[in-house]
């Protein structure tokens, strides 16, 4: 009887130990997967920023700001490198159908944007960037990033809300750069610029309810809205495409700075 009891106890202990070891392995595998996802999320965020810059610079170039040509060519090289680095860093990404479609779209846009009309150039960039935002969301879910909390809030607020806000500012940068380059602000452009300013206000209000910004980041957006209203739309003084692009970029970088801080916080928690 004692031998049976001892055997049963040994079986229970062995089984319990195996369950604990399996749980620890799964936890380690999950953490490893999350860390890979956070690294890839950061890479894709940089690519997103560069594609948004290309949209703005190419829009200004198409409207006559030929001084932006060297910046466009340098940026295209940066995008190619960032794209290659991202593909090499992740087997999940390298075989992803949406990612392959993004690469193909970018290669065609890089080679042919200078033959497009302004509106078509912006639309093509918008579609490409939206595809990348969808890819980021797919990647985050597949790498189990939804459950990571930063300051008590799910990390998905960082890539969804903050990236949406950054994209709204990016669209305003592209449109404003084109208008500044042309030296004219038509009624249609005025309507679009005002609409984008409203979208930015709505998007940042949503994002900042969850993750309040630093004062200087909020001030950059205030300065950008003031410039759009008084210099781009009302033409109270001459607008410069390169200067406007730089001002809008500072506003976007403030949002991306918040995003990067959230990712860094998540890495420390993982």
UniProtKB/TrEMBL annotation:
Keywords from the named record: Membrane, Transmembrane, Transmembrane helix
**Location of the Nitrate/nitrite sensing protein domain:** 47-262
Query: Where are the bilayer-spanning segments?
Result: 6-24
Q: Which InterPro entries match?
A: Nitrate/nitrite_sensing
A Pfam family in this protein? NIT
| Protein name as it appears in the record | Nitrate- and nitrite sensing domain-containing protein
